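Sharing a chain and its predicted structure for anyone who wants a worked example. Both blocks are below, sequence first, tokens second.
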Amino acid sequence: MTVCGFPEFLWIWNRRQGLETPALHRRIARWLNARWRAGDRRLLLQAFRASGKSTLVGLFCAWLLLQDPDLRILVLAAEQDLATKMVRTVKRVIERHPLTPHLRPERADQWASDRFTVARAREHRDPSMLARGVTANLTGSRADVLICDDVEVPNTCDTAPKRHDLRQRLSEADYVLAPGGLQLYVGTPHSYYTIYAETVRPETGESAPFLAGFKRLTLPILTDDGRSRWPEKFDRAAIDALRRRHGPAKFDSQMMLRPVASAGCRLDPDRMPLYEADLIYSERNRQAVLTLDGRRLVSASCRWDPAYGAPDGGDRSVVVCVFTDEAGGYWLHDAAYLSVEPDGDLDAARQQCRAVARFADRNFLPAVAVETNGIGRFLPGLLRAEIRALGFSIAVVEKHSAQRKETRILAALDAPLAAGQIRCRRPVWSTPLPQEMREWRADGSAKTHDDGLDALAGCLIDEPVRLPRTPAPDAVRPGWRGGPSVTADADFDL
């Protein structure tokens, strides 16, 4: 039976503690109360760091047990200690709040630091409240309320494998929740690929945001008109000091709740304007012309960085092509992350060579550069054979890289990205390449894939391939590089 609403429960607690209830906390309390009353059971609360959101959610748990002592609440956090901290908070509230002392059980063994069971009518195998780290084994547990409090922290989201593992574990936690139970996420984004993202990140392979369908309350430290949401604690001077001390990236992430790369993004893919145009090939006055989005192209480069590693753990085999227009702008037009069929008619090497040959043909590429470091040493010959077998006229250029990879990538991409000279075709945005760019670190500290990034850098470093200016006869595709057409009268006597 309802004794009071959660805002009143919070006000009574703060009054007993000699504290004021700031407007920020009143708003959060009203939202939680309204969502519970309305029957919304998928909720996400995002508020800036040090806003007191976890303390409020602990009080909310105590209030829920006051409404229904038979509820089972499971708290998940990135680490066991963080989850236990919330359980201890709820214990103290139940012990000291004037409306809840009757909930304390008679037996001391039911009042532990990481779990407790209130005085209740039903007999449940699970306690009233239980703390667990997100990596813990939850098999056999059941809960009516699942609190995911700061499950995303740098240690659980700073690499793609960790983010995948976090999502898998949180998805498994859904089976713990009883039908109709409440699932409440509380936290701040620590990655551009945060579980709290409102929009899909195509390069992750997800078709919908991880928390699609959740009711959201998002409260950054500054309102839309630039005012502090908690001026009593964070005035404008304090906010400016936080921005200076922690830098714009961390401030945007933790205080403004904008998903950004966790350590700052040197190669920001958002600096590449997107386009959707296709290549248009034509022949005019015996000249081949290739245009893209209304601009004539004058050169192309294509780099294949081959690999035979496992798709999930090893290096990836990637081929990338870049065009250059008459104004010197770069067009990142296509990127393919190659895979092979284990039971195919061709071996893995020839399957990849055939895929690269077709990639070059559909993009009107005159040549493919193959990185010959490592396994690529014997692939140029195989690639030439596949090109001949398919009837294409494409050159194969062997490239050996002696420079350190991080140095090569930075030298190739840093300046053109900063100048906004690289355009990117929208389908490339759905490949892993943008993710590689966001997570790349110049010091090599990021233990993430960079194979597509290395291939792109190779395209930009390579000298543009200059093609014949006049159409070639028969099956050989004419060059589209352009240039003036010259006609000479050859009717003369020697």
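Comments welcome. Residues 465-470 have pLDDT under 50 and may be disordered.
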